[in-house]
Amino acid sequence: MHYVSTRNGDVRAHFREVVLSGPAADGGLYVPAHLPVISPEEIASWSWLPFDELVWRVIAPFVGDAIDDQRLRALLSDSYKGFTHRAITPLQQIGHNEWILQLFHGPTRTSKDFAAQLQARLVSHFLEACGGEALVVGATNGDTGIAAIEAFASRPNVRLAILYPRNEIPADRLAVLQAADPASVQLLPVDGSFDDCQTLVARLFRAWPLDGLIPVCFNSTNWVGVLAQIVFYFHAALQLGGGTRPVGFSVPAASFAEIYAGFIAQKMGLPINQVIVSTNSNDALHRFIHRNRYTPHASQRTSSPAMDFSLYSNLERFIWELYGRSGSSVAALMEHFEACGELSIGNAQWLQARVLFDSYAVDESEVRREVLRLRDDAGIIVDPHTAVGALAGRTHRRSLGAPMVTLGQIAPIKSAALLAQLGVWDAEVASPPRLHDGPPGLRRGDLDGLCKALQAAQSRRV
Questions:
Q1: CB contact at 8 A, 7 and 26
Q2: Mapping DSSP to helix (H, G, I), strand (E, B) and coil, where does residue 283 land?
Q3: pLDDT tens digits, residue range 334-345?
Q4: pLDDT at position 298
């Protein structure tokens, strides 16, 4: 298996290079040159497999000969040892043929643990082989950075640098970030939005300032962020229909990686009949799916903060697929997008996307009503992100005969304060955490300041 850039099919990379990287050198994202296709009979034969064996069956074709099978099995199995539920991703029924796939039983109680735990082990494996050191860099509006710290902070030959929007991150998440060991984690607040943080990270990788340190991105621009999540779809479909019955999914848009992973799973042969892109009032992605017009804009604060942004880097991978894997077409589209801040694709490509994808934007009043409805009608408590997905799934499912699965990305306890306000959380809510001011914030778009901050931290270590 080798990988190419979404903007240039002549760029070739081995799986090791893809793991130890961020975006490709030309600004595109790495994608597999071809996808493994699995027969319906083979998929059906996987229905009895334990989770770690299923993970190996799905992921091994993307790794190829980069890691021998015995070592890969061990790395994959070890990635889930910190999960607290024996099923890893249990299904919970919430209505007639409606389910939540609980993805929050990892160490930090969010779905971000799947990618972070796997990536940390793969990065460590390849660093050990080459004797190198890495700076793992990324942007977070809360949970992604926390998952990266949990996975990477104790790894040898690895340091973390985390950019976050100074005034847009929930206080409880910020407290966890600030508690990280500064010897291994460098926090870099940005006086801007999460989208500004993502843009700075992308620019940093194009102008890497630190010789001797391998740059790795912990966001899902790194292919591992997608790869780890393809398994979700196989696991749910096998549990609900043995891999032969069509299944629909509603995905709260806290990342396009999970949405794109569903598309990849269908291309591999899984019978997915619908993917609903579920957004909160920050609806840039909904407007792209619904109207073929993508225009990132300033985000609003909501009760589902993991979705409070509008810049989705993995959308580029999806567009590459829609354009028949044409790097030149994607390069032209992305050049226009980066210059003008808006994107529309060809009508044929948009109609192709709509064969699988629907979307729905859920406003704040609907989110709160759905949390209460699920408490009253199903006797369960969900966090607001999951409520967004559940409402969209119930409202816009195409078939009552096909199971509809909402990806439950965040444990309810992580939204305890809001749930207590709604009267659905009985546990005593902790008092607000104490925070400190942190270092001065980087100005929006200040690549030079970011490079200097990283160089200064490296100089202190040396």
A1: yes
A2: coil
A3: 999 999 999 999
A4: 86
Q: Of all helices (H) and strands (E), which one includes residue 102?
A: strand 98-102
Determine the pLDDT at residue 29.
97
Residues 6+ apart with CB under 8 A from 126: 16, 19, 20
Tokens linked to 11:
């760029």
Percent of the chain with pLDDT over 90: 83
* CA–CA separation, 174 and 231 (whole Å): 30
Burial level of 131, CB count in 10 A (0-12/13-18/19+)?
Answer: exposed
Q: 3-class DSSP state for residue 231?
A: helix
- Can you read off the two tokens belonging to residue 322? 């829609």
Contact (CB, 8 A) for 1 and 63: yes
Where are the chain's structural domains? Answer: 88-109+224-421
Give 447's pLDDT tier (boundaries 50, 70, 90). confident
pLDDT for 216 equals 97
Distance between CA atoms of residues 409 and 142, nearest Å: 13
pLDDT at residue 444 greater than cutoff 80: no
Half-sphere exposure of residue 99: CA atoms within 13 angstroms, side-chain side: 22
Q: Comparing C-alpha atoms, which of 360, 359, 362, 370 is closest to residue 424? A: 370
Kindly indicate the confidence band of residue 449, based on its pLDDT and cuts at 50, 70 and 90. Answer: confident
- The letter for the amino acid at 382 is V
d(CA 268, CA 262): 10
Q: Rounded to an integer, what distance in angstroms lies between the CA atom of residue 5 and that of residue 423? A: 49
The structural architecture, per CATH, of the domain 88-109+224-421 is 3-Layer(aba) Sandwich (3.40)
Separation between Cα atoms, residue 69 and residue 75, nearest integer Å:
10
